[in-house]
């Protein structure tokens, strides 16, 4: 399980997901930059990430799942 906070990841995705801030937070710099450039895939990518985070399947850069504690 990841050390990153699940609630913080959700909040970053909800409020700044279009800029990929939640991906920078979990250490996924490359995809964070892609989200920043494409505005979260025009919002679609950010929504998909939000669903994955809520379901507890989102992983950090080391492959550890970010789940509610």
TrEMBL record:
Q: Which residues form the TM2 domain?
A: 3-51
Which InterPro entries does the record cross-reference, listed alphabetically?
Answer: TM2, TM2D1-3-like
Species name for this entry? Answer: Bacillus carboniphilus
* Database matches in Pfam families: TM2
According to the record, the signal peptide region is none
Recorded superkingdom: Bacteria
Membrane-crossing residue ranges in chain numbering: 6-26, 33-55
Reply yes or no: does the keyword DNA repair apply: no
Q: How does it sit in the membrane?
A: Multi-pass membrane protein
Quote the subcellular location field of this record: Membrane
Main localization (coarse): membrane
| The protein, known as | TM2 domain-containing protein
Q: Which PANTHER family does UniProt cross-reference here?
A: BETA-AMYLOID BINDING PROTEIN-RELATED (PTHR21016), TM2 DOMAIN-CONTAINING PROTEIN 3 (PTHR21016:SF7)
Keywords of the record, alphabetical order, are: Glycoprotein, Membrane, Signal, Transmembrane, Transmembrane helix
